[in-house]
Structure formats: C-alpha cells, structure tokens
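One thing: could you explain this record?
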Amino acid sequence: MDEQKETLRVGSAVRRRRRQLELTLAVVAERSGLSVPFLSQVENERARPSRRSLQRVADALLTTDVELLAAADPACTVDLVRADEGDGEGSSPDARVRTLVRGHHQLHAIEFTGDHDEGREFQHRNDELMYVVGGAVEVEAEGRAHRLGRGDSLYLTGGVRHRWRATVPDSQVLVVAVADHIEATDARR
C-alpha cells in the first residue's frame, strides 16, 4: 500500500473558501450554474466534482481549481507520527514543539517539551485539553493559577484566556484542541 497516494478531499477546501468569502451555497450555485444540492454534496464529500465542475466552482469562489486542490485535505484515515518526527522547534533552545496531528483536521494535538514562553497568552476559539505527560506546569486561567503534575489534565472552554509555564525542566505537555476552523456549537441551546 502506497501511503503517499491519497485521494484529496476537495469539499473541505471549497467550504473553507466559501465561508472565507461569506457566501451561501445559493450564491455559489448561482455563480457557478451548479445546483445547491450538488454543491452541498461536494462540500460534505458525498460527490466528487468533475474537473470542469471544479473549475466552475473555483470561478464562483474567485480562485482556481489548482488552488482548491492545493488546499484540499488528504482523505487519510490513519496518519502515524513517529516519536522522531515532527517540528521539534521551540521558542528557545530548551524548548521543543511537535505537531502530533498533521494536516487540516478537526482535531489538533501538539506536544510541548521543555521551557515555554510563560508571558505568551493564549485564547482559542474552541475547547482544549492540556495533559501533563511528565514534569510539572503552572497554568493561569481566569485569574487563578493551577499547578499540574504528571498525569494531571486541565480542560479549557473556548474563549478562556490562559498562559502557562513549565515549573520543572524538560516537562512534557500534550495539548489537544478542536481546530479553529471548526465552528463549535453549544448543544444545550
């Protein structure tokens, strides 16, 4: 099996571009001459547009079919990231940041090892979970300091401003978050 030969999921790129332009499916349908149901199926990966249809969609979205294909997600259901793979760069020589989920997906996972820029404040649109794999960290969120040790986790709802720092050298923190391009909704409403 050749892992490099993946089918591209162009629907995700079409949806991102349409939303970036703040267009409805009806407007794109009108501009492209394609039907709303077909465009919906394309965006939801239930239909694959022909090259000509993709060109029509791209024209309606003020881009090119080549750019949409370049922005497409790989239809990869399994992606293995080995321990020695990843970015490995950090904000200082004593820090490493490694992406554990590659590509444009609904889930982001990042591993931080070592020191961290404690002055940097974060605020993510969607929810996130911090898990201390090793060492210890201190997280400041909503005016409170939370000390976390190995095996501890902290859940942060989207929109919560926070900052954190390692309190033990070579601490390892795993951060798992819902991707920013996903619109999280409150099911309780």
Notes: The longest strand covers residues 107-114. Confidence is low (pLDDT under 50) at residues 1-6. Residues 103 and 157 are 23 Å apart (CA to CA).
